[in-house]
């Protein structure tokens, strides 16, 4: 299975980079993992709704250019479906069994995802109704993907 994580925004914090590298290394046993980091657009203080929409659309264009036509796209979205780790694992497994082996997870910038990206998504997933920094969320996503593969394989994971 090929898994790509597309994320808007540069990762600056060393401890987050180390966590991402660790989970990417662990995931190599289960899948081919790649991470695409896209430049985020600067949002001015007190940006108007129109300006925010323009920023989301510009980030969305870059995201869409990074997605192959045959990819199954999972957008991380507050309005998406919430799953347990076990349900998430089963969902990923079902996708693989049904021939969808090129998965793309999309994490938007601080303003979220454009409507065009949400329209392209085959599935919308929500981890929580809480808001998280998108840099930290990248670590959380990789951890859950790793946990999902461990569950799939019947391997222990409570560390």
Automatic annotation (TrEMBL):
<feature type="binding site">
    <location>
        <position position="76"/>
    </location>
    <ligand>
        <name>S-adenosyl-L-methionine</name>
    </ligand>
</feature>
<feature type="binding site">
    <location>
        <begin position="127"/>
        <end position="132"/>
    </location>
    <ligand>
        <name>S-adenosyl-L-methionine</name>
    </ligand>
</feature>
<comment type="subunit">
    <text>Homodimer.</text>
</comment>
<protein>
    <recommendedName>
        <fullName>Ribosomal RNA large subunit methyltransferase H</fullName>
        <ecNumber>2.1.1.177</ecNumber>
    </recommendedName>
</protein>
<dbReference type="InterPro" id="IPR003742">
    <property type="entry name" value="RlmH-like"/>
</dbReference>
<keyword id="KW-0489">Methyltransferase</keyword>
<keyword id="KW-0808">Transferase</keyword>
<dbReference type="GO" id="GO:0032259">
    <property type="term" value="P:methylation"/>
</dbReference>
<keyword id="KW-0698">rRNA processing</keyword>
<keyword id="KW-0949">S-adenosyl-L-methionine</keyword>
<dbReference type="Pfam" id="PF02590">
    <property type="entry name" value="SPOUT_MTase"/>
</dbReference>
<comment type="function">
    <text>Specifically methylates the pseudouridine at position 1915 (m3Psi1915) in 23S rRNA.</text>
</comment>
<dbReference type="InterPro" id="IPR029026">
    <property type="entry name" value="tRNA_m1G_MTases_N"/>
</dbReference>
<comment type="similarity">
    <text>Belongs to the RNA methyltransferase RlmH family.</text>
</comment>
<feature type="binding site">
    <location>
        <position position="108"/>
    </location>
    <ligand>
        <name>S-adenosyl-L-methionine</name>
    </ligand>
</feature>
<dbReference type="GO" id="GO:0008168">
    <property type="term" value="F:methyltransferase activity"/>
</dbReference>
<keyword id="KW-0963">Cytoplasm</keyword>
<dbReference type="InterPro" id="IPR029028">
    <property type="entry name" value="Alpha/beta_knot_MTases"/>
</dbReference>
């Amino acid at each position: 299975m090929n898994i790509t994580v597309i994320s808007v925004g540069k990762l600056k914090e060393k401890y987050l980079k180390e966590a991402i590298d660790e989970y990417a290394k662990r995931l190599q046993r289960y899948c081919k993992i790649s991470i695409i980091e896209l430049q985020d657009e600067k949002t001015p203080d007190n940006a108007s709704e129109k300006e925010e929409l323009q920023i989301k659309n510009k980030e969305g264009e870059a995201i869409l250019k990074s997605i192959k036509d045959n990819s199954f796209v999972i957008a991380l979205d507050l309005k998406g479906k919430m799953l347990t780790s076990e349900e998430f694992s089963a969902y990923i497994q079902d996708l693989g069994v049904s021939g969808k082996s090129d998965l793309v997870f999309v994490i938007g910038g601080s303003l979220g995802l454009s409507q065009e990206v949400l329209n392209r998504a085959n599935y919308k997933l929500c981890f929580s109704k809480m808001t998280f920094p998108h840099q930290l969320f990248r670590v959380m996503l990789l951890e859950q993907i790793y946990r999902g593969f461990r569950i799939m394989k019947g391997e222990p994971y409570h560390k």
